[in-house]
Automatic annotation (TrEMBL):
This is Pilus assembly protein CpaE. The lineage of its organism: Bacteria, Bacillati, Actinomycetota, Actinomycetes, Micrococcales.
Length: 138
């Protein structure tokens, strides 16, 4: 799972989130633990669409008084498969390096580009950040 800092960079670069079951997120704000991760689930946390925006409803939560949170307060932590999907046709390869790191290779602008990180999800995230940046310049 990518870290909060990298997830914020993706969000700030324009990566949109449409909550679905299985998605991981954290709630941003001083009243929440920064390392507590939630999972969208049809049973406990469901996205609800309103004219005013999307909220994440906490169904049956008894431990603390949290009924819902605005999508803007939630930080999506995209999974490896979701990041790879967002790369689309630019994705070329994921390879494990001998030192245990991971490399994602993409193709854009007529050239291949490599992105390395300690875990595969972060390598995908760095590649997606670069792809978003390139497409924003067009």
């Amino acid at each position: 799972m990518i870290g909060s800092s990298l997830a914020r960079q993706l969000r700030d670069a324009g990566l949109e989130w449409h909550p679905a079951p299985g998605d991981f997120f954290r709630i941003e704000g001083p009243e929440f633990a920064s390392d507590e991760t939630f999972t969208v689930s049809d049973m406990t946390i469901e996205p609800h669409e309103f004219d005013t925006g999307t909220i994440l409803g906490f169904n049956g939560t008894t431990e603390w008084a949290l009924d819902s949170v605005a999508l803007e307060q939630a930080l999506w932590l995209p999974r490896e498969d979701q990041l790879r999907e967002r790369l689309g046709g630019a994705f070329r390869a994921l390879t494990a390096r001998p030192d245990g790191a991971w490399r994602v290779t993409t193709h854009s602008g007529g050239a291949d580009h490599d992105f390395e990180a300690a875990d595969a999800a972060s390598a995908y995230a760095f590649a997606l950040l670069a792809l978003i940046d390139v497409t924003a310049l067009r």
